[in-house]
Design a protein that fits this description.
With 154 residues, this protein is mainly beta. The protein has no helices and 13 strands. A 4-stranded antiparallel β-sheet has the order 6-8-11-10, with no helix packed on it. A 4-stranded mixed β-sheet has the order 7-13-12-9, with no helix packed on it. A hairpin with a 4-residue loop joins strand 10 and strand 11.
């Protein structure tokens, strides 16, 4: 923990995970995977009446040795402000591997700004929020599998 002028300082740090079914965080800040998905590890530092919070996205993918077919999108739920873009990542295992295409259920609320195939397991798409509402962003693999991320623009 650092003070506003950059000096290291002591403070009480509390850790939590926003979704404990995906991962947990110990008192010392060690993250432990619990299930496939994404969660935020949140650190809250306090000293007297001063408090600061920061977080990091933690993504748990299926085991690389898993033979079952899995296709997930991370994050799977997100709120975006209009005009803001976010990169979503898909991960595939087993028979779900292939090439990928991305789409949105309502292009007046959000659009796919760019998409990149990284490998037969990984693909990314940058989604841009346009106006208020909710949409589903779908990734479809050439092997016939699909996964969805729910995007809300408040």
């Amino acid at each position: 923990v650092y003070s506003p002028n950059g000096d290291e300082t002591s403070a009480q740090i509390d850790w939590i995970a926003s979704d404990s079914t995906v991962a947990t965080v110990s008192r010392s800040g060690t993250v432990r995977a619990r299930g496939v998905g994404a969660t935020f590890a949140v650190a809250r530092a306090s000293r007297g009446s001063n408090e600061a919070t920061d977080s990091v996205l933690v993504t748990v993918f299926p085991s690389h040795t898993a033979e079952q077919a899995v296709l997930i999108v991370v994050p799977s739920e997100v709120n975006l402000t209009a005009g803001v873009a976010l990169t979503l990542t898909s991960y595939a295992a087993g028979a779900a591997r292939g090439s990928y295409s991305w789409s949105v259920s309502d292009s007046s609320i959000a659009r796919v700004r760019s998409q990149t195939g990284i490998s037969d397991r990984l693909a990314e798409a940058t989604i841009e929020a346009i106006s208020r509402g909710s949409v589903q962003v779908r990734v479809q693999s050439t092997s016939g599998f699909s996964a969805v991320a729910n995007v809300r623009v408040p």
